[in-house]
Amino acid sequence: MPEPVIALSGVCRDFPTDPPVRALADVDLRVDPGDYLAIVGPSGSGKSTLLNVLGLLDRPTSGSYRLDGVETTTLRDGARTRLRGTRIGFVFQSFHLLSHRTVVENVMLAEVYGPHPRGGRRARAEQALRQVGLEHRIGFVPDRLSGGERQRVAIARALMARPALLLCDEPTGNLDSRNTGAVLDLFDGLRADGLTILVITHEDEVSARAKRRVRITDGVLRETP
Amino acid sequence: MKLRDLWAESLAGMLARPVRSALTTLGTVLGITTLVVTLGIAATAGNQIVGRFDELLATSVTVEVPRGGYHALVSWDAAKELRRLRGVTSATALAQNDASSNLVVTANNLLDPTRVSGQTLAVVAATPDLPDTTFGRMRAGRFYDAGHVARGDRVVVLGEQAAAMLGIDSLEDAPAVFVKDRAYTVIGIIGGLKREQILASAVLVPPGLGPDFGLKDVTRVLVATQLGAAELIARQAPLALSPNRSGELQVNAPPSPKRARDGAQDDVNGLFLVLGLVSLVVGAVGIANVTLVTVMERVAEIGLRRALGAARRHIAAQFLLESSLTGLTGGVIGAGLGMVTVVGVAAVRQWTPVLDVRLALAAPVAGALVGLLAGLYPALRAARMEPVDALR
What we know:
heterodimer, A: alpha/beta, 6-stranded mixed β-sheet, 7 helices, globular
């Protein structure tokens, strides 16, 4: 059996407010390579906290989180940053594109902080854009793209670093139904290529397309059929 | 992260808002310009004042000899002896008095009632070193030498203006001049005098002929020194010339050129240097302010970069480099403007602009440093940001 991409066991995340808030309560989760998993739940249920923990943006208060076989909770800040840059591709609800840079430059940004060589970077970025069907938008600035196109640029950027895991936070939250369909079709294609995708959403249409669905309520995770 | 990537990201960040970056640069531009102009004008003006104490003046010492009564204070030979002092390149003793300054000199002794043939000229007795000491050049003929002096030859050398006034322009037919009805052969015409230029309109006679004109005693000694020796020679010359009565001699020495330069620079520098520094501080505060605003505006970008694997130091380095580049740009523009201003002011005043290469190089560096310092706090703020908060 291959090493799981994500293995959470007994993960808790408490926020030291008054009274203390337990955002994640004893979460166990296993995601295998090639899984397409949707995490659903109402707002305030701990979805974002879970995403932050999974994306190495936040540390769990207790428990163990193994990413690609590496125990991350004991890693120092620098090592977590490197792991985040090389193993995880992020897709955000609000795209997070730099408005003054062209589409291809935005995609190339993914390789700026890693150990990747400069040579051929542009070609790899164009390849990633071809993968999301945006090769005709290479020289555009994000302002001139539709919402769906922007999100596909963000996905291309996430794919650029060849991550083990694509972590998507409400990827269709700002999109109309037609663009949502396009993005979801893209996810299907990527998943068919063997990429591990984890989508956090509150939209049924999105979660319905995933192979596995996990519901989170008040910090408690429950697998749903 | 590679340096070229850091450079490209910082440059892109700076150029993303060109107008804002340009306005931010303005503070540094003003500060650096003021500094460069201040230092440049000070150097230029300082050099200008020093320029007046040029090499000639700085090497000229004049000793005035008062009338010494029965015994002459300074003998004619003493000037020659003065050459034995280290630092003296040449010395000439002169004799001139009121009576000898207004003598009627004619180029011939024919009386031509239609023309004014006589000219009122000064007759000056001088030792043969005069051309050396005054840096004069012989326009024609030669200067008298020790032989003429020893033999008591009745020869004279005319200053070039005196020669022109007397209508003597060539020595081919051995012209003579007549003073007090006595003839003297003109053996040379001297011109191009660098000091004692008044001698250009004088008739110069060997010391032996001085008594003919009431010029018995030395009244003045001209000394040319090596560069830098003037002050020393000014102290030593009276003792050497007249050991017993040195206190009675008056010495005119050039003021120390060094002090003149320092004084000039101090005056100009003080106030404007402070002004320049103040504008630089204002510029730095401006950069710090705008960089901080930029950091706050770009929180999402910082979060994104952290998500893409940027470490805190990468974020700090980018913002530091951006603010340094802003400062550097200001420094380069400021240095350029400052230089142009210095040259402009110098041109208007007809001065020689003095532009220190080190200043031209240091100004942009100072600008970059200002930017770097100004960027420290905002960069720290940006680096301290938690990616979770930045992405919210």
